[in-house]
Amino acid sequence: MARPALLAVSHGTSDLDGARSIAALVARVADRMPDVDVREGFVDVQQPDAASALAAIDRPAVIVPLLLSQGFHVHHDLHGIASGRADAVVTAPLGPDSLLAEVLALRLDGIGRPGSPVVLAVAGSRDERSVPDAEGMAALLRARTGRRVDIGYLAARHPDLPTALAAAPDAVVATYLLGRGFFFDLAARQAGDHVITPPLLDDLQADDGIPEALVDLVVSRYEQAESRS
Q1: Rounded-to-integer distance, Cα 16 and Cα 206, Å
Q2: Is the pTM of this model over 0.90?
Q3: What domains are there in the chain, each with its CATH number?
Q4: Strand pairing report for 88-90 and 149-153
């Protein structure tokens, strides 16, 4: 019996490097799961849009949000399109998760400054469900590194990144974004003289820039949903 298809849905970006990193992640997932039909879709900017991508799948499907928290795109967009398909399910987003904490910790190790406090740069969402996810990710990073970890939002919520950095002037900035694009550019500007880590999908140790832990995480989300179906 064929396994369900995996539809990996990201936000979408006009930044070429950011788009390439997401495409590389999906390709790595497909390589890991040769017996699964792995597709890609987007909720904004890029094509195919998630609804069209799901409509093109003629078998049961597991939709994995390549997003870091609960929010409008997960609950409105993705659950919305899945509600019309009895054979489609939506997994939890990628964060918070200990695998992401591991990647963030490695990024921090790579820039030095051991023991410095950390401000976690989070995109931010007006959806209240995103708040415990961001706080949960900060707690996981705190437990993994033993450092002080505060949150600085890049949009929609407070404290914003400049305010969080003003309260921790010796902090480094941990970028809690998958790839490059508008929010990373904003974080880099607002970080000023503070050291900032690259996005999660920028792994200088990997040929394609994709940390193995991110592939593991997407596969895990799929397999958890598959086992419940």
Answers
A1: 19
A2: yes
A3: 5-95+205-228 (3.40.50.1400), 98-191 (no CATH)
A4: unpaired
Please name the amino acid found at residue 136: G
Backbone angles phi, psi at 42, to 5 degrees: -140, 155
Cα three-residue angle 182-184-188, rounded to 5 degrees: 120
Angle between helices 212-228 and 16-32 (to 10 degrees): 60
Tokens of 117: 């406090």
Distance CA 156, CA 188 (A): 18
- How far CA 1 is from CA of 35, 58, 59, in Å, comes to 11, 14, 11
Which residues lie across from 62 on neighbouring strands?
6, 89
pLDDT digits (tens, 9 = 90+) for 21-67: 999 999 999 999 999 999 999 999 999 999 999 999 999 999 999 99
Distance CA 158, CA 218 (A): 29
- Distance between CA atoms of 50 and 9, rounded to whole angstroms? 7
Q: How far apart are CA 15 and CA 45, in angstroms?
A: 10
Contact 165, 119 (CB under 8 A): yes
Q: Which residues are CB-neighbours of 133 under 8 A, at least 6 positions away?
A: 68, 69, 70, 93, 95, 96
Own/partner pairs, 187-194, CB within 8 angstroms, 24+ separation: 187/121, 187/154, 187/161, 190/152, 190/154, 190/160, 190/161, 190/162, 190/165, 191/121, 191/161, 191/165, 192/165, 194/119, 194/165
